[in-house]
Automatic annotation (TrEMBL):
Keywords: Membrane, Transmembrane, Transmembrane helix. Residues 186-196 have a biased composition (Basic and acidic residues). The chain crosses the membrane at residues 6-33. This is Translocation protein-like protein sec66.
Length: 235
């Protein structure tokens, strides 16, 4: 009876030990893999440059002597939200194109991980801005990004207008230069055409035109004869 129980016990322990070793190995591998991926993700360069407007706002917020007025803090928070609007637009525009490139294998997983981390940072930033805005005024967090969007659009329009004004002078100079080139080419073609006709061509043309004028004014010998006969008949 005892040897049979021992065999059964050993037969039961072997699969259990195998499963324990297998599960333990998978757990260790998963833990090490996650740590390695986390370290790799942390070592990747950020998608966006440092958030200067957020740093300015936090610096003003924690300044104690002298304490910054709330009006300046609100303005700094609004500038921070405006920069967030710019980053949201960049993320939305890049996401679809990046997904297509990732499916085609044109970009690596590192770039996609950077993008996903940027999305998470944007979400946390938006929540933080909303909480800060509601701390200054009730329900301001619901409208702060609308005001920031209008400011971003005005800034973009001013930038485009500045670019247009800066390029208009250069375009004007280019057109003036182009007009002078066309004018000089036209005069050159006229001189080449005169030179190709030769010096006697214009003189002969002038002579023939003078002779024709004389013939027209005089009426010709035939017309004179006819006129003389008519005068004699009257006498």
């Amino acid at each position: 009876m005892w040897p049979f129980d021992l065999v059964d016990w050993l037969a039961l322990c072997i699969p259990v030990a195998y499963l324990t070793i297998l599960v333990g190995s998978l757990t260790v591998f998963s833990t090490l893999y996650r740590k390695r991926q986390s370290a790799k993700t942390a070592s990747l360069s950020p998608w966006f440059p440092p958030h200067l407007q957020r740093n300015i706002y936090l610096t003003l917020l924690h300044k104690e002597d002298p304490k910054v007025p709330d009006s300046i803090l609100k303005a700094a928070l609004l500038r921070r939200a405006t920069e967030d609007i710019h980053r949201i637009v960049q993320v939305r525009n890049a996401k679809q194109a990046l997904q297509v490139l990732l499916q085609r294998g044109s970009v690596g997983d590192d770039l996609w991980q950077r993008f996903q981390r940027a999305e998470k940072e944007i979400e946390e930033e938006l929540r933080d801005v909303v909480n800060e805005a509601n701390a200054y005024a009730p329900n301001w967090g619901q409208s702060i990004f609308q005001s920031a969007s209008e400011m971003a659009q005005n800034t973009q329009i001013r930038t485009q207008l500045t670019d247009i004004l800066s390029t208009s002078q250069a375009e004007k100079e280019w057109w003036e230069k182009r007009r002078e080139e066309i004018k000089s080419d036209f005069y050159k073609e006229l001189e080449d055409e005169k030179a190709s006709k030769g010096p006697g061509t214009e003189t002969s043309t002038v002579k023939s035109s003078d002779d024709d004028a004389v013939l027209v004014e005089g009426g010709g010998p035939a017309e004179k004869g006819k006129g003389g006969k008519k005068k004699k008949g009257k006498h």
